[in-house]
Design goal:
By secondary structure, the protein is an alpha+beta fold. It folds into three domains: 104 residues, 2-Layer Sandwich (Hypothetical 12.0 Kda Protein In Nam8-gar1 Intergenic Region, Chain: A); 72 residues, Arc Repressor Mutant, subunit A, CATH 1.10.10; 75 residues, 2-Layer Sandwich (Alpha-Beta Plaits). The protein is 37% helix and 22% strand. The protein contains eight helices and 13 strands. The strands form five sheets. It has a four-stranded antiparallel beta sheet. The protein has a three-stranded antiparallel beta sheet with strand order 4-3-7, covered by helices on one side. Strands 1-2 form a two-stranded antiparallel ribbon. A hairpin with a 2-residue loop joins strand 1 and strand 2. Helix 4 crosses helix 6. The longest helix has 22 residues. The protein is flat.
């Protein structure tokens, strides 16, 4: 947040009662309370991070200082309504309440950008890990993009790129000769994180075997595309604060019985 001439500016956008919202792609957090509508204008990436607990400074989230009744029309919430609804006129405090309790309304431009970014990520994973079994060479990105169109593949906004790879591959196989090189992993989650994160492991690939140990720990054999191995290691290590052991299994190891 920057102060300039007595007026606060956020992210390079100055909002006044004369601003032209139709020229701006606005991302909002919206809350309806006591029959009134309250909106704040937000940076979409930071707003998502704040809602997920990855950021706690509301000033990094706001793209405008005001509380709006209708941000797209530039209509501010009356101070009387703010005081009666929130018990304060502190706009940062009110904005944080709106963001925590309200819903994000992200612009179509932002959603389109994030979907394109996720599609690129899926294409990169498949390009890095899949081969054409006819010549054992990777498929070029352009060929994969054409196959996406032919198979009418759509990216799911609510799932990570990694979570979608297996389902997308099944569809690609109808229009393209393709095979993924796999790794088989033995994964051991300590009891503290086992129940919370074992489902995350399922999202990455195919469970070959799994078992809950007497001490509450979780043990499994997981088959995944080789190219997302480091993503899985990073994800589990971060979420369990190191409370996970991951071993790449050789063909001899696969005789191991859990």
């Amino acid at each position: 947040m920057i102060k300039m001439g007595g007026m606060k500016m956020f992210s390079g956008i100055k909002f006044t009662k004369r601003y032209e919202p139709e020229k701006i792609h606005i991302n909002l957090a919206r809350l309806k309370k006591n029959g009134k509508n309250y909106e704040i204008v937000v940076d979409p990436d930071n707003a998502v991070a704040f809602k997920e607990g990855k950021m706690n400074d509301i000033r990094e989230v706001l793209s405008a200082e005001h509380i709006f009744e209708n941000a797209k029309k530039g209509i501010f919430s009356p101070k009387m309504d703010l005081q009666s609804t929130f018990g304060t006129l502190d706009e940062e405090e009110i904005a944080e309440f709106i963001l925590r309790k309200g819903d994000l309304q992200l612009s179509s431009k932002y959603r389109d950008e994030k979907q394109a970014e996720k599609k690129r990520r899926v294409l990169e994973i498949i390009h890095r890990n899949a081969i054409n079994p006819q010549n054992n060479l990777p498929h070029p990105i352009i060929r994969l993009e054409n196959a996406f169109e032919e198979a009418k593949i759509r990216i799911d906004d609510k799932r990570t790129a990694e979570d979608q790879v297996q389902d997308i591959l099944k569809k690609l196989k109808h229009v393209l000769p393709i095979r993924i090189e796999n790794k088989t992993l033995q994964i051991h989650l300590i009891e503290r994180y086992a129940k919370k994160h074992y489902k995350l492991i399922h999202n990455y690939g195919k469970i070959i075997k799994e078992n809950w140990l007497d001490d509450g720990c979780y043990l499994c054999l997981l088959e995944i595309p080789a190219g997302i191995y480091l993503d899985l290691v990073d994800d589990l290590s971060r979420k369990t604060h190191g409370g996970v052991e991951i071993k790449v299994m050789s063909s001899k190891d696969l005789n191991f019985q859990i």
